[in-house]
Specification:
28% helix; binds 3-acetylpyridine adenine dinucleotide; flavin adenine dinucleotide binding
């Protein structure tokens, strides 16, 4: 087509393609920014829609709004790279502050231009003849059909919360809630409260409940976890979550100083990866962590025995969790590590024969971490993604999977979800998607799909690295789909720097590419 000026970067006139992104949390909003602003040339040939099932943007920060919710990633690196926020009030931000930041960023950049709220994708089927995804979406209870050339899953991984599998749970006659489905209309004060779970959610909820007037709280834990209080804020302070002073905030408002500050935190975070390698660094961390936890527990032998893990630091996700260990010093806050055998109308029963009468049961029991979609995504030869991933999820570099052409995933299996800067990694992933979108549109490509052999090789490569890392240690964790043994399916087996290198090129040789003509 000679109508294109010769100095264009494209060899062919780009064909118009329709891109649908599912989800308007951090990942989906990053895609919105890339398509609307970062790569303005995409306007010429990309028609983009973001479907969001909920009534607002914000993803995980909209869903997880339990009391005390706070991010355990430093605020200054938990921000959109295109709009770093100099005004964070603390080293770690509250969920509410993050939600506010997300909403104001959306408004500032008009990122809701292509978003359709209250609209749920209920099915996606690949059509090999047309090279398109046929979609069904539900809005206000009505189903309609749509299509796209490229489908991007930006649904996140910790989306569908899990109720514990405890006999009698639903016979409980008091108030029952989940950390990811909090009931803000209920007054928790003056209640006897059972908090089940001691992951990142449970450890934030427990001290908040213990603070309320007249409460009696029991936290039921099954597996101990490390709660290091060593601040990576770079300041020698006791407070694990320091508030920023006015001077610091005004310093951050100078773009160069802010950039340097962010760089320093990213560098400290990247270096922390060394801690996750089995061996002397981790052994030192175990010693340090055990000593620090014992101090926080006032060297209470019973609490130390129950709470200080015997496995590596980082085997389960570490979280700063200020106030959790300290809460057990209060007379109204207790810990049980005996297995819950049943829940009755008014009590939690444990294997050691104890019965805890309570008015409230809070399940901080995590999420479905299978990666399996909760609606049919059907790829080549009728392959349903939920079936493909029934035993274990497999991906190509976390961003795509064989038999699912033109399907790209943010935070797919084995992504950079446990170390480094998550938002930075989503940003690199978004850039990677844009490269494919441009290539597909400008080279008249019908579809691209990762080769199964390469996907398998990536899995093996990751497994080999994982053998050297603490995530394969002897604990039970959601990194291994809530198992003790088995593959690490949630996390990338390498540093953030390695992930960045691996994703900086689209490596077409790893894909089968089908052209339209
Ligand atoms: O979920 P989890 P989460 N009886 O799966 C326990 C992110 N996040 O919502 O391990 C008793 O970690 C279960 O015990 P066990 C972050 O990535 C971040 O807390 O199966 N207990 C476990 O203790 C985090 O890692 C932030 O033995 C039962 C707990 O429930 C991820 O989300 C805040 C049980 C679930 O812990 C998930 O965190 C919140 C039973 N029958 C979340 N069933 C921050 O940034 C389950 N459990 C701070």
């Amino acid at each position: 087509d000679f109508s294109i000026p010769l100095n264009t970067e494209y060899a062919y006139k780009p064909r118009k393609i329709r891109v649908v992104t599912i989800g308007a949390g951090f990942s989906g909003l990053l895609m919105a920014h890339k398509i609307q602003h970062r790569f303005p040339e995409l306007q010429e040939f990309v028609d983009h829609t973001i479907y969001e099932a909920r009534s607002d943007v914000g993803g995980t920060w909209l869903i997880n709004n339990y009391p005390g919710v706070q991010c355990d990633v430093p605020s200054h690196i938990y921000a959109f790279p295109f709009d770093p926020n100099p005004n964070w009030s603390r080293f770690y931000s509250s969920g509410a502050e993050i939600e506010e930041y997300i909403k104001s960023t959306v408004e500032k950049w008009n990122l809701d231009r292509d978003i359709q709220l209250n609209t749920k994708v209920t099915g996606a089927t690949w059509d090999e003849d047309t090279g398109r995804w046929n979609l069904t979406v539900e809005h206000n209870g009505e189903q309609r059909e749509d299509y796209c050339d490229v489908l991007i899953s930006a649904q996140g991984v910790l989306v569908h919360h899990s109720w514990p599998n405890i006999p009698g749970l639903h016979d409980f006659k008091g108030h029952i809630t989940h950390s990811a489905h909090w009931d803000h209309g209920y007054d928790y004060s003056h209640k006897r409260i059972a908090v089940i779970g001691n992951g990142s959610s449970g450890i934030q909820i427990t001290p908040q409940m213990a603070k309320l007037p007249g409460t009696k709280v029991v936290n039921f834990m099954r597996s101990p976890a490390w709660y290091p209080h060593q601040s990576i804020s770079g300041r020698d302070v006791e407070d694990a979550n320091p508030a920023y002073s006015e001077e610091e905030i005004s310093m951050f408002n100078d773009p160069e100083s802010h950039k340097q500050y962010r760089k320093a935190i990213i560098s400290r975070t990247n270096k922390a990866f060394r801690l996750f390698i089995k061996g002397e660094n981790n052994e030192a961390a175990v010693k340090f962590g055990a000593q620090q936890m014992a101090e926080k527990l006032n060297h209470d032998p019973d609490l130390c025995d129950k709470l200080i893990p015997k496995w590596e630091v980082g085997c389960r996700r570490v979280t700063p969790g200020p106030g959790y260990l300290e809460a057990f010093a209060k007379p109204n806050c207790n810990l049980s590590n005996s297995t819950i055998t049943k829940i009755t109308e008014n009590a939690v029963h444990t294997a050691d024969g104890k019965i805890f009468e309570c008015d409230v049961v809070i399940c901080a029991t995590g999420f479905d971490v299978s990666h399996r979609p909760h609606y049919p995504i059907v790829g080549q030869n009728g392959t349903n993604l939920a079936d493909k991933w029934a035993d274990e999820p497999q991906s190509y570099l976390s961003v795509a999977t064989s038999a699912f052409p033109n399907y790209f995933i943010m935070m797919g299996p084995n992504c950079l979800g446990g170390h480094g800067s998550l938002v930075e990694s989503l940003n690199w992933t978004g850039d990677y998607f844009v490269k494919w979108i441009k290539k597909i549109a400008t080279e008249d490509i019908k579809y691209v799909v990762p080769k199964k052999s390469v996907e398998d090789a990536f899995g093996k490569y990751g497994d080999e690295i994982h053998k050297t890392l603490v995530w394969t240690g002897g604990c039970k964790s959601w990194y291994k789909r809530n198992r003790v043994d088995g593959r690490v399916t949630a996390l990338f087996g390498g540093s953030a720097i390695l992930f960045n290198q691996m994703i900086s090129d689209i490596r077409p040789e790893d894909f089968n590419i089908e052209y339209n003509s």
